Amino acid sequence: RKDFELYAERPFASRLDVYPWVAVHIAAVAVGLSVGSAEKDFYGVIELVLYCVFLSGLGNALLFFGTFWSVQVRCTVAFRRVKSVKEATHAKVIRREASHVAEHDATLAVSTLVALCRSEQTIWIEYRKKVLLWREEKACFERRKVVLDKPVSEYFETKGLSSSQVKELTKVHGTNNYDIPLPEFSELFKEHAVSPFFVFQCICVLLWLLDDYWYYALMTLGILIVLEVQLVERRLSDLGELRSMRMRPRQMRVLRNTQWIPVSSDDLVPGDVVALARQQGFPGSGQDLNRVPCDMLLIQGEVVVNEAMLTGESVPQLRSAAISEASSLDVKGAHRQHVLSAGTSIVMHRPGSGSLAAPSGAAIAVVLRTGFDTTQGKLVRTILFSVDRVTVSSKDAFHFLGILLFCAVLSAAYVLREGLSDPERSRFKLFLACSHIITNVVPPEFPITLSLAVTLSLVQLLSNHVYCTEPFRVPFAGQVDCCCFDKTGTLTAEQLEVGAVYGLPDHAPSESGIGAAGLPQSLPFHTMAVMAGCTSNTVVDGELVGDPLDKAAMQSVLWSMIVPDMVSSSDGREKLQILQRFPFQSELARMAVVAKHVGPGEDWRPGVPTSAGASATSYVILAKGSPEALRPLLASVPSDYDETVDMLGRRGMRVICLAWRPGEKRSYTRDEAEKSLNFAGFLVLKSRIKAHTVSALRALRVAKQKVVMITGDHPLTAAQVALDTGLATMPPLLLGRTGQGGLQWRSVHGNEVVPFDSFDLLPLAQRHTLVVAGSELAVLPPEVMALVSRAVQVFARTSPQQKESIVYAMNDQGMITMMVGDGTNDVGALKRAHVGVSLLNSPAPSRQARLPSRDDLAMPTVQLGDASIASPFTHKGESVKVVLTIMRCGRATLSTVIMMYKIMALNSLASAFAMSVLSLDGVKLGDGQTAMESVFISTFFFLVSRSQPAPKLVEARPTKSIFEWHVLLSLLLQAALHFVVLITGWSLAKSHRPTDYKPDKDGDFEPNWVNTTVFLITAGMHLSSFLANYQGAPFLVPITKNRAFMVGLGIFSSVMFFSAAEVMPDLTHSFLSLSLAPNDEARNQLVALLVLDVAGATAIGAGVHALQLAVQGGSTK
Questions:
Q1: Which among 486, 550, 826, 1002 is annotated as catalytic?
Q2: Which of 291, 676, 802, 814 could lock 635 by a disulfide, CB 3.0 to 4.6 Å apart?
Q3: Judging by DSSP bridges, how do beta strands 835-840 and 817-821 pair with one another?
Q4: What does the angle CA 353 – CA 358 – CA 363 come to, to the nearest 5 degrees?
Q5: What is the DSSP string of 164-187?
Q6: What distance in Å separates the CA atoms of residue 11 and residue 463, rounded to the nearest whole number?
Q7: Is 486 a catalytic residue?
Q8: Complete DSSP assignment for 827-858
Q9: What are the strands, taking DSSP E only, across 480-565?
Q10: Whole-model pTM above 0.85?
Q11: Distance of alpha carbon 31 from alpha carbon 37, whole angstroms
Q12: 607 phi/psi in degrees, rounded to 5
């Protein structure tokens, strides 16, 4: 849902970050002079005044930068709200998002400020590549209407558009292109330079420069600029690659002003009538002349399209012309087989008959949607704006930041109070010290930490050929409660093997021999005609392409398609020409064709000669579908119809009912064709279980994951496949109807009957595998559906809408769901699940050079052809074991973020203590010490984030929040140990000071034993925070497997302990400005404290982690 607010831009002088701040800056000078009156040194007064002006300028700058960080701040500071669109220059768009993809029981509101565009009669805004028009009567912006629910017959009555209609439609819908502007480097760098992270770091650099920490400040600034330059270059590269894949304009034949004229594809508008034909491009031109430029409805002819660029699926799909009817167009349901989507490529075309004369034998289509309104346009928008949603538990992040800020303010307040009570203390140095505390306690790594773990998980997924268009879903993969799987094409292979045809008493399968057609039986002509002729396949470049089921059926009877829509028997005496096709629809669970038959017919037998003149020409209607769908359409139902279906289903077979009847004419409506059909047998097919299905499902069961099958197959078939794959292990119970119309559970063989009781579902599911069909699901009330979604393990004979409703019910029960399917009939469920995964049965791309490195901090951009419109995650491969990879990456992401939060918290608390209490004692760190410590900590954070996911999925679940008891307990115990060690070391070091020592709080850094002790103990605290809080098993690989991290720890610990033990005193003194110990006892005490801190913190971390796993339960192996 979107809400809108209107704003008018303020003149520059009236902005709230301009005129009020003049008085603020003057007041800052006055305050500086007033407070500085206690200063004895004139330069001290000047410094204090400059610092006060610096603070007021900093506030002014933060308000200015706040207009880039927050839309609300920008609207308040630089705009004023108005009620009339005539006064407005901008509009604020407030997009509210559903809670099932965000924090539970919450609604996300995302605001964007966009400029108004005006023409003579229209006011509009462009929001995320969508044009929204101002509606005066509703006082809001609405998306430009693309009418897609007109009666189908209206599309057949069109005679093309006139010039005036094209002009008006262009004003409304714009041009048909994917305008992805490529920004300049300076423009993108400016966007990065005003980001909170960059500005915060620059402020820190400026403060350190004021305190004479030149090495540290300049090094930080240099690294910061290099990092931002790399990110900008990466974004430019990704945008350039995405832009290069957009469709280039080409000339097309369009019916306008009753004439076929050449028109650029960029100028197409909804309602245009277009001629489609396969063309040959010029070699090396780089132009694909066969790409469909927009979404179209096919009204004449047939087109075979390759949808790899849109869905990732490499198998060409047949699209046939729609049938003129009074029903409304349904592009997602009943008529999706007649819609050509933008971005698909025409592999083959055939002209059709109709009222329009197509040029050069082309097929004809009507434009439905153009530009970013098309199916591919939506995918491009998803890819372009996916980077905006890279986050991990932002609520926890802000709570965490609030606690750190609270600690920082307390520490700064303490220092400020103590400093103001000292009349000799420089006020400038005092305020500078307070600023250091606040900026240091909020770690500079914090902003990037929110996205770094997700980004590196995306890189890990890319290396496994998993492409993600919605990165914010990665953390959900680590919290999955229920894994739902489609059957055919997901758990079992798409390639099918024909077993036999059952239900024909005179042609029963033989156990001993093979019939002439390659089956264990001889078949009547009409049965073979349905198997060969009722098909959606076609021939492209001499190769049969299309549905694997249709392929297997045709090849099993040794028929072949000699040309598109013409099938022939092996001896060539029987031919069927498909005249009309009613495509398979999931909602109807059947398909049919009207064919012209030439041949002997019933008198024909494979390999048996027939008398001359026996050939005849006739029309025939051929149909096939699920037994339940065709049963009411049969003129006569065999007495053993249901028993045969059940028997075959119990064997785990896929059962297709075949039917036919004589035809009288070339064309029918679907209702006319599909009635009074003659039964022609049950075609039985087997599909092999995929290679990794059993092992993947076993791994999920071992990890105590709930596993569910949601399929369109027969309940008995689904139940048997569930047992064969290991998805289910207990005896199945199927939900069915009683004689009185009620519901009851019955076993596969019917020897056990259990009354249906919604309150007994969960206990019953502990003893049986519950199987529910879509027909029974449809009669359940919503409150019972909620219980069913928790207890049932196999859902069968479900429509695409029912698949979606099942996943929705699971989400409504608070479960985090994963849906795995092949992306065809599962689109609704894949999008409804928290984690939707499409398996594309195509080879993984061999483009390793394009895969980003784990050393790259930029979020990888998914390209067209990798992503699928079906789901947020797309895997180019057929194995379901990718589910384990996605879940392991999700768990690793959650584990890494919690680990980094803990490390940052400990480091920040140590910094707060060191820069407050110890600074009042005159303890300071040198420039080189600060620089070295910062380099090592930043390096460690990056190396920790590169840890690989654990190789095995375990029963234990990752921590979801930093505020869980075991995280807080570990932090408190480690912090207590650190403070005890630090205070002890500080006290021992102070005992070696001269008796007349007086701390110089404002003086320059000078090496002494107290500074040396505090620096080395602080370094030890940083080292132990990484060692103690590295999660490792069971969600990440052990720390020893992260070699780069281990090498870094080794170098850092060696430098630290060698310095403490004074192994190389000259080197450490010159490089780190360390002082030598006053005696051996002091040196040994320091080494002992370092060992105690590192070993003690590591033991605390390991002990609390073990306690957590013991309390939580669940195996970690």
A1: 486
A2: 676
A3: parallel
A4: 70
A5: HHHHHHHHHH--SS-------HHH
A6: 51
A7: yes
A8: HHHHHHSSEEEEEE-SPPP--GGGSPPTT--S
A9: 482-485, 492-502, 538-540, 543-545, 560-563
A10: no
A11: 10
A12: 80, 0
